[in-house]
Structure formats: C-alpha cells, structure tokens
Amino acid sequence: MDLWRIVESIAEEMRQASDRGAVASYIPELAKVDPAGFGIAIATADGRIVEGGDSGQGFSIQSISKVFALTLALGKVGDQLWKRVGREPSGNAFNSIVQLEQEHGIPRNPFINAGAIVVCDVNLAGHQPRESIGEMLRFLRYLSGDDGISVDEAVARSETETGFRNMALANYMRAFGNVRHPVDLVLGTYFHQCAIEMSCRQLALAGRFLMMGGRHPEAGRVISDRRARRINALMLTCGHYDASGDFAFRVGMPGKSGVGGGILAIVPGQASIAVWSPGLNASGNSQLGTAALERLAEETGWSVFSARGG
Ligand code: DON
C-alpha cells in the first residue's frame, strides 16, 4: 500500500473541496480562523510519519484535549473516576445540560463538556490550575517528542469571556457535589486545556500510545493495554457526541473531534491519525476532516470493523 500516494491524493481533493462547513463562531477567537486549511498526518505502527496538506500548521485542539485529560485522570484515581462520570453515549450535543438534572449531576461520559469538566476537577486535586495545565503540556510534549506545544492564550481568554454554558454546567454539577473545586479554577483549567495548540503531526505522534496498546514507541509503557482499549472504546462510542454513530458508520475508527476542526483517530495496531480542517458540519465536527478519514478508511481498509486490516 502506497500511503504517501493515498495521503497526497486525499489532501489534493480536500484542498479543492468547495463545501467546507462553517468555522465555530461561539468562541470569538476561533471564528477568525481561515476555513481554507486542511492537514493530515499519520503515525504508523512501524514508525513512519506520513503527512499532507497543512500538517505542520497549529490549530486549537479543543475537545481532543479531553482524551489526554482522561488518560491523566485515570492515572490518578483509576476506576474511581467512574463513580463521577458515566461511560455511555449521551445522544445529545457536546454542551447539553438536559440529562444532568435527572442523572444527579453525573455526566454521561468524559467527552461531553460536563464530563470533561469533572475530569478537570479530578486533575486539579492538590494542584493550582497552572500546575495542572503544566502537567498536561508536559504529557503532550512527552508523548509527541516535541517541546513546541503550548497554550494559545488568546483562545483561552476568548472562551473565558464567553463560556457561559460551561459556567452553567460547572455550577450545576458543583451544586450536586460532583465539582469539588471553585468553579472559576476548574473552568480556567478546562479553557486552557482546550486552547492548547498543536499541529496534525504533533497530534498524530501524541496519539501513538493508543494505537500501540498503551505503549510509547520510544519511551515504553504509558498506560496498560486494558486502559488503552477502554479509552479507544469511549472514543468510538462518545468521541463525536450525537454523531458518534454516524462516524462509526462512515469511518469505523475510535475518534475524538474538536471544534477547532481537528480529529484524532486511532486504528489499533496500525496507525494514529490526525486531520484538521476548521469548517464544521451540523454536528460540530470537522466536515472535511471526517470526509478525509472516510476516504482513508476506504482506501486502506483501516477500520475496527474490517477484516481487511490494511
Ligand atoms: O467547551 C467548549 O465548548 C470547547 N472548549 C470545546 C468543545 C469542543 O471542542 C466540542 N467538539 N467538537
């Protein structure tokens, strides 16, 4: 299989696409991003990195950060986490509040905003917000082998000024006792985590431990095989919110999207893939990013549901 040729042709198709979706505008700083961008990077299990388009261009990882925050939180409290966050798809939008009242302030899963806010609360225990963000940045730099990863402060500020729904979610869960630190500290951590800027290349490298059963190709074990499997399962079932079923149907890989237009997708044993294009579809997931992964799955046979396996 000539992966370079496939990636090149996908990048060319996406460069020419006319319907690119709409850039997220509810975070004012993200609304300024040029919708013309498209990048793709694939880190393979045999140690190659294959990339195309704007694969070195940094973008706001937003909700993709929730995968790494979850990994850290499980490292701290293990399965205790599941007393405070569920593991079921919500069938609702990423920022929905509707289930929280009936379900006593326990969010459905760690990838909807409410769940990620609880995960942040867990990661904050014993730390100042700046230390917690520092821990996340060190983790991402270690995983990707790249020290050039940092927070885009303008994006963090922009969301701090406009994140009223997240404030509502956090306050609501604090009333149930499921957020334990002051809400402004938890949200400060959450907004900065979402505002981390990475390129497709950095993100594909950072995701390698999830394709390799919890092992980092150079540094060794990051998490157990079982935990990697479980995180992948959550990405498959909850990573695209109420469009997770459609993503599984079209792409068939555990994936996590972000409103910055990025998607991290994992093919266990084969590849860690990052795509980025800032225009979103109606469900808030990257329009061309999803299309690119769909084509990649078709051409490579990469899918957790496929017998072809690449
Ligand atoms: O909390 C928010 O609304 C954003 N910081 C992250 C949302 C997000 O990326 C949803 N993903 N598609």
Provide a descriptive summary of the structure in words.
This protein has 310 residues and is of the alpha+beta class. It is built from 13 helices and twelve strands. The protein has helices at 3-16, 65-77, 98-102, 113-124, 129-144, 153-162, 164-175, 183-194, 200-206, 208-211, 225-238, 244-250, 287-300; strands at residues 22-23, 39-44, 49-53, 59-60, 150-151, 196-198, 215-216, 220-221, 255-257, 262-267, 271-276, 279-280. β10 and β11 form a beta hairpin. α2 (65-77) crosses α4 (113-124). The protein is globular, with a radius of gyration of 18 Å. 6-diazenyl-5-OXO-L-norleucine binds at residues 62-63, 94-95, 113, 159, 166, 194, 257-259, 284-285.
Core attributes:
globular, binds 6-diazenyl-5-OXO-L-norleucine, 310 residues, 3-stranded antiparallel sheet, single chain, 5-stranded antiparallel sheet, alpha+beta, 12 strands, 45% helix, 13 helices
